[in-house]
Write a structure and sequence with these properties.
heterodimer, A: 195 residues, alpha/beta, seven-stranded mixed beta sheet, globular, B: 482 residues, five-stranded parallel beta sheet, four-stranded parallel beta sheet, 17 helices, 18 strands
């Protein structure tokens, strides 16, 4: 897995609440058997017209906004457990998603794909939307080591929470499977106790 | 693996609850293999369910690492999400879907998976329906699947939850997963449900109260008279929808209803093993005085038949109610609320009773079991399907399909102008051809009314099987009690 350290970037604002994984990647795009190409269909039904042309009013098609940080309304990633949602977000080029809270399964899926979900207060989230609204070139800085997110337009910072183990995984580019595979002896010992 | 004699350890494991442990604590604690320092728990998984859509990349991962499946007999595989519901004996027409199904079969074969139920197999069906009906799902288990509605299996008193594909790979490789311990919540439904009110209505009512993210971070135990009075299938409907309020999962303490359901099923314990296991299962309940992080209590008598009016399952109301006014929504949520109503073609303050609809879908892991078909058939008996309605009746499995025929429900449905399709997830997520056209209204017994969920532009109104039956007959949103 790719390592994550610090990131300063402009942002793509999506001030919609309860963005579910069916919006992030609609089910009809889940027929692939590998992890590639999902970025092209990220937010497909909001992003493209029926004929495949881009919808001018959707933020991903706006010439104004770009960057590797997606900022969304509360409860981002609800619904289906499809990891294709995380692959689509990573595939598009986002490294961080900021919201005031995330659905559980999406949060795990994002972390397992080196996409960092950053939970901020609803006030901080509102301030980011205001900053970006006022100036599309405004940036955020995310420092994983320090667990801080800074709105560089206002200078305001917030600490964000992350499980220490997950943080270490991201900093070192390790995944859960590496840990589990190193514990095979414990698993076999456990199985003996229940047999 | 045969974990038939696990009752000793699992019944004597000290709980983390102090004075008393919750049902969740008891099952969780019995499955802890290790704890990562300052990190998640390494949890042992008893049963893994696997389907064609969220597993191919996991098998690819094993291949890339040169790994085998660690415990093949603890994974049950069925094709359901991306399968047609007609002509299943013919080759699947869509080449991309066909490739996914072929890949599923190839993986099952290459990794020597003994419990593989492809299209056409007698045990094939929706993963959360075939698990319980074959006895794979049992009390006290930890159960995962790359599907958020894995919470269904919690109805048996199991810790069951949905996982992503990376985690599917972990379970295939190690039969374990790393998880942070969720908070616990108990939701109690006192009293009895009224006439014409189903388990689906209870769940939609609860989600409308908690909102679509209101239980995020929690594992929920359902309790109270209204839950105790439910059949296993009704309990499955309630637990199935736990995820729709964001909960990691939901579970119900096993009781005689549970044991009677499990006993005799193909993969359920038999003979002496049954006696030992069921003795352990009887200990699986929340101790008096055990603490939950949150407790909620509802009165079942307050619940009426429910429908949704928006684009998430939390946007539900009683069938005779009006859509909430915009000013009842908090300010940050108003853009989303308006966007949602615009998508649905509804207005705040509007009543939906009597509104014409175009499609009815009976099926899915939420309401695709035999009791759902009984409720539907009982209502439409002697009546006729409305001409303006296209109805898709999709049994959850071949076992359900067989029962529909054996019980005479098929004849009742046919006489009323309905046709029966073949098992699968179908229009619940519209991966196959069962797509509701843009702008059309579907009264659906499935679990999600998200934008485009049943097809691009489709407008979904979630409801129980009884409301769906009434809509199918009148062609309108109709209170089935009237």
């Amino acid at each position: 897995m790719e390592k994550f350290l610090t990131l300063t970037s402009t942002v793509v604002p999506l001030p919609i609440e309860n963005v579910d994984t069916d919006q992030i990647i609609p089910a009809r795009f889940l027929k692939a058997t590998d992890k590639n190409g999902f970025g092209d269909n990220l937010f497909a039904d909001w992003r493209y017209n029926k004929d495949g042309s881009p919808k001018a009013d959707f933020v991903l098609n706006s010439p104004e906004f770009s960057g590797s940080i997606l900022v969304a309304g509360k409860n981002f990633g609800s619904g289906s457990s499809r990891e294709h949602a995380a692959w689509a977000i990573a595939g598009y080029g986002f490294k961080v998603v900021v919201s005031s809270f995330f659905a559980d399964i999406f949060q795990n899926n994002a972390l397992n794909n080196a996409v960092l979900p950053v939970v901020v207060s609803s006030e901080f989230l509102a301030e980011i939307f205001t900053s970006v609204n006022n100036d599309a070139k405004s940036t955020l800085t995310i420092n994983l080591e320090e667990q801080t997110i800074t709105n560089n337009s206002t200078g305001n910072s917030e600490k964000f929470a992350i499980n220490p183990y997950k943080k270490e995984c991201l900093l070192k580019g390790l995944g859960d499977i590496d840990y589990l595979l190193s514990k095979k002896d414990l698993i076999e010992a456990y199985e003996k106790t229940i047999k | 693996m045969n974990n038939s004699e696990n009752f000793d350890k699992r019944s004597t494991t000290p709980s983390s609850g102090g004075q008393g442990a919750t049902l969740f604590d008891k099952i969780w604690d019995a499955h802890v293999v290790s704890s990562v320092e300052n990190g998640p728990t390494q949890l042992y998984i008893d049963r893994h369910f696997c389907h064609e859509v969220t597993s191919p990349q996991a098998f690819n991962g094993l291949r890339a690492r040169g790994l085998k499946v660690f415990r093949p007999d603890q994974t049950t595989m069925t094709a359901d999400h991306n399968t047609p519901t007609i002509d299943q004996d013919q080759p699947v027409k869509d080449p991309v879907s066909r490739n996914q199904l072929d890949t599923f079969a190839k993986n099952a074969n290459e990794f020597n998976m003994p419990l593989f139920y492809p299209l056409g197999h007698i045990k094939n069906g929706v993963v959360h329906i075939i698990g319980p009906e074959n006895g794979f799902t049992q009390p006290g288990m930890t159960i995962v699947c790359g599907d958020s509605h894995t919470s269904t299996h919690g109805a048996f008193g199991a810790i069951a939850f949905g996982i992503g594909t990376s985690e599917v790979e972990m379970v295939l490789a190690t039969q374990c997963i790393l998880q942070s311990r969720p908070k616990t919540m108990r939701i109690t439904f006192n009293g009895k449900l009224g006439k014409g009110v189903t388990a689906k209505d209870l769940a939609l009512y609860m989600i409308s109260k908690l909102t679509t993210g209101g239980a995020t971070g929690y594992f929920v135990e359902y309790a109270g008279e209204a839950i105790r009075n439910m059949s296993m299938e009704e309990r499955m409907t309630v637990c199935n929808l736990s995820i729709e309020m964001g909960a990691r999962g939901g579970l119900i303490a096993p009781d005689q209803t549970t044991f009677d359901y499990v006993n005799g099923r193909e993969f359920a314990p038999k003979g002496e093993e049954w006696d030992k296991k069921s003795a352990y299962w009887k200990t699986l309940k929340t101790d008096e005085g055990a603490k939950f992080d949150l407790e909620l209590v509802f009165d079942a008598a307050d619940i009426q038949p429910m429908i949704t009016y928006g684009t998430n399952p939390g946007m539900g109301m009683g069938i005779t109610d009006s859509i909430p006014a915009l000013d009842s929504v908090d300010e940050a949520g108003r853009i989303s609320y308006q966007k949602s109503l615009e998508y649905m073609g509804f207005k705040a303050g509007e009543k939906l009773e009597g509104k014409a609809i175009d499609y009815v879908f009976l099926g899915s892991c939420t309401n695709g079991r035999i009791e759902d078909f009984r409720v539907f058939a009982n209502y439409v008996k002697g009546k006729k399907k409305a001409d303006n309605v296209t109805a898709w009746l999709v049994p959850g499995s071949w076992m359900v399909e067989k029962q529909i025929r054996e019980e005479g429900l098929y004849d009742i449905l046919t006489e009323a102008g309905f046709a029966l399709r073949q098992p699968g997830c179908s229009a619940c997520l519209a991966m196959n051809d069962d797509k509701v056209p843009a702008g059309k209204y579907a009264v659906s017994t499935s679990n999600r009314n998200f934008e485009g969920r049943q097809g691009p532009g489709a407008r979904t109104i979630l409801a129980g099987p009884l409301v769906a039956a009434a809509a199918a007959v009148t062609g309108r949103i109709t209170d089935p009690r009237s």
